[in-house]
């Protein structure tokens, strides 16, 4: 009997994943990952980690499987939280869920599972996996979940072939409604539980408070940029570098319209939290300058400063799950790309030059944020990903 360790988060998805694996004849062990020790930033009346771990334990008892709590808080701080603070301090927008899967669930957690004699780890992600043969070698493919509204393949865009070979996604072929139905039929305590919106395996976290614990507040100017001025400064170039370069915001004529408490607390495309009135349409953040502590805004979501045709990826965090499809230097290939979770896939071309990998979209994209992950697909298969520079 093959052993599998399930990451029981205290939610309905991982609960049903554990149930299905047991029904399939696996030797199932449930483990709750405790990734954070500071309850001061958790919204205590909306499912903190303690409530989640108790729910996970009750699910394990109901299913008759062993249950453990694994404390990964120190490693989580070093690998995820410290990375987040560093990125935000530089004006970038990291995605902790992608990092958590790469660094914690399918690295540290996987290693602990292997110590317990498990062959696989399983999660409640809405994605699917299969395998093909290429040149006599088995290659694993990561596919989108059957429920298009819940597809979470984007969050797994940074795991590699070795990690994927050890992964199981028991609910990936189901719709969310079917998952809840199974949970109700099995009388699982998590059947009606709301989905968590918090950071990975922490609980519901007040992200601004979380950031302010480490990043000091510092008053700076909010500068509004006129759309016509922005159009005038719009780069008309056609090279990869010109198409992917952010607009030179500090060079554009603007007007101070308010103050903020730190440019590193804001991200491109953000609408709420500015506290600036007097405009006919909502203001959106076009960009930030953390060195000068300035936040640049534009009126309406049609402002040209919100849109760009391309982006460049950091070479250090580029990953091809399908290395056989990797774009070589001097070459290009067409893929479907998304630059944030739940975004519809966008047609684009990946082109590699001597100075890096570029993504040029068929249509200009709104709010391209440095630090986020861009993931590219062929149909419903995730091919690779990288961090936006």
What's the gist of this structure?
The protein has 389 residues and is an alpha/beta fold. It has helices at 12-23, 49-63, 73-89, 96-115, 161-165, 176-185, 207-212, 227-233, 240-244, and strands at 3-7, 27-34, 67-71, 120-122, 127-134, 137-144, 167-168, 220-225, 254-260, 283-289, 294-299, 307-312, 319-320, 332-338, 346-353, 356-366, 373-378, 381-387. Helix 1 (12-23) packs parallel to helix 2, helix 1 (12-23) packs across helix 6 and helix 3 (73-89) packs antiparallel against helix 4.
Please explain how this structure is put together:
The structure is a single chain. With 389 residues, this protein is α/β, with parallel strands linked by helices. The protein is 25% helix and 29% strand. It folds into three domains: 210 residues, HUPs (Rossmann fold, 3-Layer(aba) Sandwich), CATH 3.40.50.620; 87 residues, no CATH class; 75 residues, Beta Barrel (Elongation Factor Tu (Ef-tu), domain 3). It is built from nine helices and 18 strands. The strands form three sheets. Strands 5, 6, 12, 13, 14, 15, 16, 17 and 18 form a nine-stranded antiparallel β-sheet that branches. Strands 3-2-1-4-7 form a five-stranded parallel β-sheet, with helices on both faces. The radius of gyration is 22 Å and the shape is globular.
């Amino acid at each position: 009997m093959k052993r599998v360790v399930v990451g029981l988060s205290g939610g309905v998805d991982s609960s049903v994943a554990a149930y299905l694996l047991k029904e399939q004849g696996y030797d199932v062990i449930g483990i709750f990952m405790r990734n954070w020790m500071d309850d001061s930033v958790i919204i205590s009346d909306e499912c903190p980690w303690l409530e989640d771990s108790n729910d996970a334990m009750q699910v394990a008892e109901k299913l008759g499987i062993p249950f453990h709590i694994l404390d990964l808080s120190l490693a989580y701080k070093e690998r995820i939280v410290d990375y987040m603070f560093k990125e935000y301090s530089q004006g970038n927008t990291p995605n902790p869920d992608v990092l958590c899967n790469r660094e914690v669930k399918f690295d540290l957690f996987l290693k602990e599972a292997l110590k317990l004699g498990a062959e696989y780890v399983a999660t409640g992600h809405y994605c699917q996996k299969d395998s093909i043969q290429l040149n006599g070698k088995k290659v694993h493919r990561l596919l989108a979940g059957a429920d298009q509204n819940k597809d979470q393949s984007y969050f797994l865009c940074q795991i590699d072939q070795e990690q994927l070979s050890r992964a199981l996604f028991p609910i990936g072929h189901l719709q969310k409604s079917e998952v809840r139905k199974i949970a109700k039929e099995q009388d699982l305590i998590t059947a009606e539980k709301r989905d968590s919106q918090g950071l990975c395996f922490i609980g519901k976290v007040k992200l601004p408070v979380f950031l302010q614990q480490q990043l000091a507040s510092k008053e700076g100017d909010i500068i509004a940029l006129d759309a016509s001025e922005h159009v005038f400064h719009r780069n008309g170039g056609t090279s990869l570098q010109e198409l992917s370069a952010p607009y030179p915001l500090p060079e554009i004529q603007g007007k101070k319209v308010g103050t903020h408490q730190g440019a590193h607390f804001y991200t491109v495309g953000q609408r709420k939290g500015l506290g600036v009135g007097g405009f006919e349409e909502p203001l959106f953040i076009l960009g930030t300058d953390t060195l000068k502590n300035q936040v640049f805004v534009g009126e309406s979501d049609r402002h040209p400063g919100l849109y760009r045709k391309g982006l460049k990826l950091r070479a250090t965090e580029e990953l091809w799950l399908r290395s056989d499809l990797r774009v070589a230097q001097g070459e290009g290939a067409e893929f479907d790309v998304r630059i944030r979770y739940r975004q519809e896939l966008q047609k684009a071309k990946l082109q590699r030059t001597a100075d890096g990998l570029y993504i040029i979209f068929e249509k200009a994209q709104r709010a391209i944020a440095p630090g986020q992950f861009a993931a590219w697909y062929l149909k419903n298969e995730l091919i690779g990903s990288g961090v936006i520079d």
